[in-house]
Amino acid sequence: MEPKRVIILGASGYTGAELVRLIAGHPGLRIAALGAERKAGLTMAEVFPHLRHLDLPALQKTDDIDFAAADLVFCALPHGTSQAVVQALPETVKIIDLSAGFRLRDPAVYARWYGPHLAPELQAGAVYGLTEFYRDAIRGARLVAGTGCNAATGLYAVLPPLRAGVIDPDEIVIDLKTGSSGAGRTATEALIHAEVADSTRAYKVAQHRHLAEFDQEFSAAAGREVKVTFTPHLVPQNRGILATVYVRGAADAIHDALARAYAAEPFLHVLPMGDIPATAHVRGSAFVHVGVVADRRPGRTMIFAALDNLAKGSAAQAIHNANLMLGLPETLGLGAAPLYP
After folding, report:
1. Which of 94, 88, 146 is nearest to 121 (CA)?
2. Residues in Cβ contact with 327 at an 8 Å cutoff, skipping those fewer than 6 apart
């Protein structure tokens, strides 16, 4: 099998590095070019020493890259930048945009959360990249929008029981803990070690942009408007997300809905009733662990979901989607076990 040629834009960020790490062990993909504006001219070994064993092209500015021979472009750029870049790519190339640029189907909704949409003409053809729920559409798509990592974690926990009608759509509370790599690699005062270590804090309370994804996907699943309560917390670890979701509904029915929905899914594992997932059990992998625990109050249940924000929440999800878009076996290159401890 001749490997498909892929280009990674934003290769000097955490998600870009994770894409490189995973693609390095993928027999069906070959990295043809790596894009990075501020670090153009450097090698990946200089930017990410943990990748120095790989034979990789040097980083280039986007304008210097030849996209004509590429089969697919991974765009791991900020949302505003990515829309303009995607708009300029050749129509022959398939695209996975890992930013928020094309996640929201309604440009007007996007504008409320992010500002003016710079490529509204492309939005109608974009497919939301939650692989297990949009698999068929992703196969035939030219442009796939990667999900938010926080959004994916909550969606995996809630969508099956919501679709099955076994939880109350008006009683969903998502309490989420996430590692600091989710904020990206740009230096930020609030994310330096002294600010993050030995502390856990809530952030963007009642205004996190991933609320727009929850509204979009939960409302579509329920067939009516659904608005959840969502509070993310930054915890002193590098990577990983754990969501605890409080719902009204019977635990047995919720567990059954999740088990049936994910029975044939290669990367979704529903734990035995009462077991609770941990971020350490999915670290660096494409896997998601989901658990269900009955609350002491009858009719109340807690659903837990754990994934790695850089892997299944971003890069591994993108590669899963790329496999589908390029006609490759969908699990190819993604079967590595999680890193533990």
Report:
1. 88
2. none
170 & 116 share domain: no
At which of 124, 159, 185 does a domain end?
A: 124
Q: Show the DSSP H helices in 89-225 as ranges.
A: 107-114, 120-123, 131-139, 149-164, 193-196, 211-222
Position 1 scores a pLDDT of: 75
Q: Which amino acid is at 131?
A: T
Q: Is 75 a catalytic residue?
A: no
Alpha carbon 151 to its chain's center: 8
Q: Alpha helices, DSSP H only, in the chain?
A: 14-23, 44-47, 79-88, 107-114, 120-123, 131-139, 149-164, 193-196, 211-222, 251-262, 316-325
The answer to whether residues 279 and 243 touch, using CB atoms and an 8 Å cutoff, is no
Tens digits of residue pLDDT in 40-94: 999 999 999 999 999 999 999 999 999 998 999 999 998 889 999 999 999 999 9
Cβ atoms 240, 256 nearer than 8 A = no
- CB 119, CB 88: distance < 8 Å: no
CA–CA separation, 95 and 110 (whole Å): 20
Q: Which of 19, 76, 104, 149 is catalytic?
A: 149
DSSP three-state, residue 302: strand
pTM exceeding the 0.90 threshold for the entire prediction: yes
**20 lies in the same domain as 102:** yes
φ, ψ of residue 113 in degrees (nearest 5): -100, -30
How many structural domains is the chain composed of? 2
**148 near 213, Cβ under 8 Å?**
yes
For the stretch 242-274, pLDDT in tens is 999 999 999 999 999 999 999 999 999 999 999
Rounded to whole angstroms, the Cα distance separating 280 from 98 reads 24
Residue 319 maps to a domain: no
The Cα–Cα gap between 315 and 74 comes to: 9
